[in-house]
């Protein structure tokens, strides 16, 4: 390149976009795995509510005495919080870069599909859900049900879930959040596999099927809990 044009080179962006996409993909897959496992644990509510309380207590004792009580739980919380921050940050930076590189006055490209267009709004709904969910069933603040009971030391996880979702407005919000999560997973799992280089020419359809299965399992499993809690806790 001639010396006269050497200073016109676009500065290299840090971190590179491929790194951001990898962070976005990996953090998303970690959180998707957590949500799937979390749903499987919540299904105890449908089978035996008392076993759900025992499960909540067991989570505090995982790896004791290797770790202090609740040590493994706090490690998981820190990991998930880090993934959430990394996921949101990388998504916003990539979104800003895409907007900045768009030619001024050029016609905006349409999203490749409705699921791609829903990634940002569904992500914002999920951020709101996480805040409400923690306030509702973990901290017991602001939006909790009147029947919320913290461990004393007996756990009341099942009763708290039923009391919360017996409220029609909260049940509707959880249902909306589940739909947003399903839409996010349907598009996100295949995209994450692609960004991590796990997709060959013929395997993308397989990853799309994985996304459909995971999204359907979580939607149906957690949706059943919402419906059962609403019906169980409804006044006669």
Automatic annotation (TrEMBL):
<protein>
    <submittedName>
        <fullName>Succinate dehydrogenase / fumarate reductase cytochrome b subunit</fullName>
    </submittedName>
</protein>
<keyword id="KW-0472">Membrane</keyword>
<dbReference type="GO" id="GO:0016020">
    <property type="term" value="C:membrane"/>
</dbReference>
<keyword id="KW-0812">Transmembrane</keyword>
<dbReference type="InterPro" id="IPR034804">
    <property type="entry name" value="SQR/QFR_C/D"/>
</dbReference>
<feature type="transmembrane region" description="Helical">
    <location>
        <begin position="114"/>
        <end position="135"/>
    </location>
</feature>
<feature type="transmembrane region" description="Helical">
    <location>
        <begin position="171"/>
        <end position="193"/>
    </location>
</feature>
<keyword id="KW-1133">Transmembrane helix</keyword>
<dbReference type="InterPro" id="IPR011138">
    <property type="entry name" value="Cytochrome_b-558"/>
</dbReference>
<feature type="transmembrane region" description="Helical">
    <location>
        <begin position="205"/>
        <end position="231"/>
    </location>
</feature>
<feature type="transmembrane region" description="Helical">
    <location>
        <begin position="18"/>
        <end position="40"/>
    </location>
</feature>
<feature type="transmembrane region" description="Helical">
    <location>
        <begin position="74"/>
        <end position="94"/>
    </location>
</feature>
